[in-house]
Amino acid sequence: MPKEFPLSKVYQLLEPGPVVLLTTAHKDASNVMTMSWHTMLDFEPPLVACVVSEGDMSFSAVRATRQCVIAIPSVELAEKIVKIGNCSGREVDKFETFGLTQLKGKHVAAPLIGECFANLECKVVDTRLVNKYNLFVFQVVAAWRDPKQKDPKTIHHCGYGHFVVDGKKIVLESRMP
Amino acid sequence: MPKEFPLSKVYQLLEPGPVVLLTTAHKDASNVMTMSWHTMLDFEPPLVACVVSEGDMSFSAVRATRQCVIAIPSVELAEKIVKIGNCSGREVDKFETFGLTQLKGKHVAAPLIGECFANLECKVVDTRLVNKYNLFVFQVVAAWRDPKQKDPKTIHHCGYGHFVVDGKKIVLESRMP
Question: Are A172 and B159 in contact (CB < 8 Å)?
């Protein structure tokens, strides 16, 4: 089971730029999409800006419910991540098709994904750039971390199915949080 | 010398979430900062949203000149990247201190960085989220790629000087650009 994770450290999960999954619950159906266009906006409370394309089923769900979950998968899920991006929730139940476990969150109806090492419950706090850029600003209201996934490697999208996987780690003396 | 790079492929450089450098030219001085909070907003023309903290000298330069260069360094520059983030242009000439080569761009006064494998000349196109989140929307108006750096590995920030370096590459059949 995921354990609650400090909101003050959420930026350390998203700042490196991993491919993530975004889940929604709307009109009695849950859905999940693949997403790479996101950035941190503030540390605490953690604010995240994400592009959810207007054509995606998730767009209308996020706009209507003003909620979502950002789930962070490790490289073991790479094939599923791509397949999730290759199809639409209008045609298939993606959770069933790809065998992903839906867990209940604390503050939002959108499901956490049991197989992801981190899950962030999010609420929309700013929609000023939605019409022009499909850019939503979310506040992370709760974060979860699977303690069994000790050293997850994330993937980063480089276009057309090319990904780079997290490699070695380095530590340098930094004043930056 | 850098070669011009197609604007349609700029997202492939930024989408993976590398730590980047941002340069400015303002009041007869050029400056450079380290930045990890950025996301693509659109493919072509490439639009990028970046957080430039209000306290940073670069913030006033970007706001006044409405221009910058986003330079993408590889892991070989990791120590310099961190040192650039640890000091302010108010105290030191960072280009001189860290031995970085300034090259002239085509459309903006901010310098390209010769040692970086890619450089993106940017103009501010939207400031609606600047007051609240320090978030600028840039349009990339020209992009440059150093052909001598064949397979650069970028770095991704995980907080407090911890970085993960690009590792192995994988390719999966994807319909996503």
Answer: no
In angstroms, the CA B112 to CA A136 distance is: 31
Percent of chain B with pLDDT over 90: 97
Q: In this prediction, does ipTM exceed 0.90?
A: yes
A105/B52 Cα distance (integer angstroms): 33
Q: pTM value? A: 0.97
Neighbours of A126 (CB within 10 A): 19
Interface touch A129/B133, C-beta < 8 Å: no
Beta bridge partners of B136: B50
Q: Are B124 and B134 in contact (CB under 8 A)?
A: no
> From the CA of B73, how many Å to the nearest CA of chain A?
15
Chain segment B90-146, per-residue pLDDT in tens: 999 999 999 999 999 999 999 999 999 999 999 999 999 999 999 999 999 999 999
For A13, name the nearest residue in chain B, comparing CA atoms only: B158
Q: Which of B9, B13, B14, B15 to mutate to test the interface with A (most CBs of A within 10 A)?
A: B15
pLDDT in tens, A30-62: 999 999 999 999 999 999 999 999 999 999 999
Contacts of A78 in chain B (CB under 8 A): 170, 172
Nearest CA in chain A to B133: A41
| pLDDT value, residue A73 | 98
**Is A156–B170 a contact, with Cβ atoms under 8 angstroms apart?**
no
Whether A7 contacts A140, CB under 8 Å? yes
Residues B166, B169, B171, B172, Cα dihedral to 10°:
-60
